[in-house]
Amino acid sequence: MALLIDHEAINVPAGSRGFGPATIPDGLTRVTLRLARQTAATPTFWAAAVRVALRSWCSLDGGATWLQWLGFGEGNGGEPGGIIAQRDLTDLAESWVMSDLPPGTGRLIKLTATVTGGTLVSRLTVEVV
């Protein structure tokens, strides 16, 4: 497991912001993108009016070309950021998406967050295994 971004505090006003690029270590096969949600423990995170679309881009040629490859949020079944209960009725601490990585060496990843309805206050994690 490698944490490319480890619970980095983000404060993204409405609009778009890029993160990265970062090198994906050779031999790793899966990536998980996570955004911390508003919960009872984090009441100022990702207010209910805020919407976010998080997209990842992967390069297989050292950054010469980028393929949009993974994401979640608006246009992908997005939901408000307020408190969401799990089946056991505890707070859902993060929104996340996981996918296999394209094979290859010298791979890069970058992210774009597009925010509407206010400022996105959260923590971003990108983990590869």
What does this structure look like?
The protein is 0% helix and 53% strand. With 129 residues, it is mainly beta. It has a single domain, classed as Sandwich (Jelly Rolls). A four-stranded antiparallel sheet has the order 1-8-3-6, with no helix packed on it. A hairpin with a 7-residue loop joins strand 4 (51-59) and strand 5 (67-73). The chain starts with a strand and ends with a strand.
**CATH secondary-structure class:** Mainly Beta
Shape: globular
Largest sheet descriptor: 4 strands, antiparallel
Any idea of the CATH topology?
Answer: Jelly Rolls
Q: What's the CATH architecture name?
A: Sandwich
The side-by-side strand order for the widest beta sheet comes to 1-8-3-6
Task: Kindly give the count of domains.
Answer: 1
Mean pLDDT: 83
- Unreliable runs: none
Radius of gyration: 15 Å
Order of helix and strand elements from N to C terminus: EEEEEEEE
% residues in beta strands: over 45%
Number of extended strands: 8
Report the span from N to C terminus: 4 Å
- Helix/strand structural class: mainly beta
- Classify the helix fraction into a percent range: under 10%
Helix count, per DSSP?
Answer: 0
Summarize this entry quickly:
With 129 residues, the chain is mainly beta. Helix content is 0%, strand content 53%. The chain is globular and about 40 Å long.
